[in-house]
Structures are given as structure tokens and as C-alpha cells.
Design goal:
single chain; mainly alpha; two-stranded antiparallel ribbon; 2% strand; 16 helices
């Protein structure tokens, strides 16, 4: 496995490439509610806003990706035998780096539409006095490459392969093509969403058995209804940017009905897989609460379609995903 010092050197070399390592001396940090800033004296010349770079990685999205990835890491061997805390730490790092880098490149790709949407117009990649586009792109490329290369060196090539699949399909399949061209963007684009699960399996066992593919399928089946709820919440933004999301093309009421159907399929599949993996009726009982949460979100959106109920549905999806992966891992441990 790759030694820690080698990883540190790799990070520093990547920072040199982006131009950050030499430019951190004059960092600026917020010091008051008025956003006044003071200069730090850390390394060498130019200003860099760490908060802006961090926000480019879309950390709130990656938290959920990390949960599914850790699920994939522990499901094949639900214990810490043969794995150190450093292994887990490196796994989280490579996942965050590869996915965060892809999210950053997505910010670069979507600059033309982000400026049109209220929820994205203040991103550092598009706002006035934000980051230079070339810096955004460089940072994204370096971060993604760092994650993939480190995964290949520390774990195995299969781990790097699935990290590459997730990042490349998200960028070239979804961001550059499907998102802007097809109403099926969410369904087909969801092929990248199970990647963290498969990365977890590959990092732990250097293989993807049938249950690994089936576990990843939970994320794939969950993605459409989750994204339809989110795109309904921001329907005006997507319409303004001319993005063919389902509510833009079919309207809010039809989207709510389709989301209800897809969400029920998600609950059924997730419950079936948990029982298939655990072979215990207790896991079905444990899943009652997350299933009730998701069904509530689906129902309020179906019953009274609006941006508000779509937001409730979206949050219910997030809660369901986090809880069901937690329950699956927990039942394998006990």
C-alpha cells in the first residue's frame, strides 16, 4: 500500500501544478459579518479563498455519496479485520477527491447555465470577483486525478477504474450531453450514481460480487425520483436555463405522480435487497421508519404538488438513503 509520505508528496506536486502551493502566502480569511478580510502570512504570494475552492466540490452532495461508499466498503466484510483506520481514511479521501474534482469540473462546464439560475448564480465559478475559470478547471482536474491515482496505488486498479467511471460518465455522459439534451437525463445519468458503492467493494475485496451490483442498484433506482423532486423545487431555474428536466417538460403534477411511482419502486427494491442480504425479518421491521419517511415525502408531493412539497420529498429521499445504508451495515455487524 502507498505510504503516507508519498501521498503527501503527491498532494504537494499537484498543488504546484494548479499554482496553489506558491500562492497561499496571501490567503484571505473572513473576520466579520461584513465579510472584511485580513491577510495571512502562510507561504508565498497571491490570494486564494479556500472556502470558494471547497464549495466547488459540492460537499453536501458528497456527504451522501460518502455514506453509500462506506456502505460498499463494509458490506462485503462487516468488520475491521484486515483493515486499518488509515485504510478507511484514505478510502474517504480518494472518494471525496475524485467526486469533488468531478463536481468542480461540472461547475466549470455549467457556467453558462449557472449564471441564469438563482440557486447557482453565486457560485465562485460564475459570480463577479469569483475564481478564474481556468483555475476552477485546473483544480477539478488535479483533484479528480489525485483521487483516482491514489486509489490505484493504495488499493488496487479496480478501485481506480470505478472512480474513473463515476467521474467520467458524470462529466461526459451527464453534464455535457444528457443534462442538456434529454428528458431521460436523470435516469440514464444515474448510471454514475452507484459508483461509490462499487468503489467501496473494490477497495475492500478487489472484486464486485452479485450483492455489490445489487447494492449499487439501490442508488441507481433511487436517483430519478430524488432528482425529480429537486428539479421541481428549482423548476423556475431549470426552465430559465432551458434544461429539459421532467417538471419543465411535463409539468409539476405529472412529475409528482411519476415521482410517487418511482419512489415506491425504490422502497420495494431497497426492502427486498436488505432482506435478501440479511435473511432476517427483523431488517424489514427496522426499515419501517425510513420507508415511512420516504412515503410521507412522496405523498405530500403527490397530494399537493408545489416547490415546497417537492423540497420535503427531496429531503425525505436523502434521509431514506442514509438510514437504509446504515441499517444494512448495522445488521451485518450484529
Amino acid at each position: 500500500m502507498l505510504q503516507t509520505c508519498t501521498i503527501t508528496e503527491l498532494i504537494i506536486n499537484c498543488c504546484y501544478f494548479v499554482g496553489l502551493y506558491e500562492d497561499i502566502n496571501s490567503m484571505t480569511f473572513p473576520t466579520s459579518p461584513n465579510n472584511k478580510r485580513i491577510k495571512g502570512n502562510i507561504l508565498d504570494n497571491t490570494k486564494i479563498n479556500l472556502k470558494d475552492y471547497f464549495s466547488l466540490t459540492k460537499p453536501r452532495i458528497i456527504v451522501l455519496l460518502t455514506v453509500t461508499g462506506i456502505g460498499g466498503f463494509f458490506v462485503p466484510q462487516p468488520n475491521m479485520i484486515g483493515v486499518s483506520f488509515l485504510d478507511l481514511l484514505i478510502f474517504v479521501f480518494v472518494g471525496y477527491a475524485a467526486a469533488g474534482g468531478a463536481m468542480t469540473i461540472n461547475n466549470y462546464i455549467d457556467r453558462d447555465i449557472d449564471i441564469l439560475m438563482d440557486r447557482t448564480k453565486d457560485r465562485p465559478s460564475v459570480r463577479e470577483e469569483g475564481l478564474e475559470p481556468i483555475k476552477v478547471l485546473q483544480f477539478g482536474i488535479v483533484l479528480t486525478t489525485l483521487g483516482i491515482v491514489t486509489a490505484g496505488l493504495y488499493f488496487n486498479l479496480l478501485t481506480a477504474l470505478f472512480l474513473s467511471w463515476g467521474a467520467l460518465f458524470y462529466l461526459f455522459g451527464y453534464s455535457l450531453f444528457l443534462k442538456r439534451k434529454s428528458i431521460l437525463n436523470t435516469i440514464l445519468g444515474g448510471l454514475a450514481s452507484p459508483a461509490p458503492v462499487w468503489v467501496g467493494y473494490a477497495a475492500r475485496t478487489n472484486s464486485i460480487p452479485i450483492e455489490g451490483w445489487l447494492l449499487g442498484a439501490i442508488v441507481f433506482i433511487w436517483t430519478p425520483s430524488h432528482t425529480w423532486a429537486l428539479s421541481t423545487k428549482h423548476m423556475a431555474d431549470y426552465k430559465r436555463a432551458n434544461i429539459p428536466m421532467l417538471p419543465v417538460r411535463l409539468g409539476m403534477e405529472k412529475t409528482a405522480k411519476i415521482t410517487m411511482f418511482a419512489g415506491i419502486i425504490t422502497m420495494i427494491y431497497g426492502t427486498w435487497f436488505a432482506y435478501y442480504l440479511e435473511s432476517s425479518s427483523l431488517v424489514i421491521i427496522a426499515l419501517i421508519i425510513p420507508n415511512m419517511i420516504l412515503f410521507y415525502g412522496l405523498w405530500v408531493f403527490y397530494d399537493k404538488p408545489s416547490t415546497h412539497t417537492a423540497d420535503i420529498c427531496f429531503k425525505a429521499h436523502n434521509a431514506w438513503m442514509a438510514i437504509i445504508f446504515g441499517i444494512i451495515v448495522l445488521f451485518l455487524w450484529i
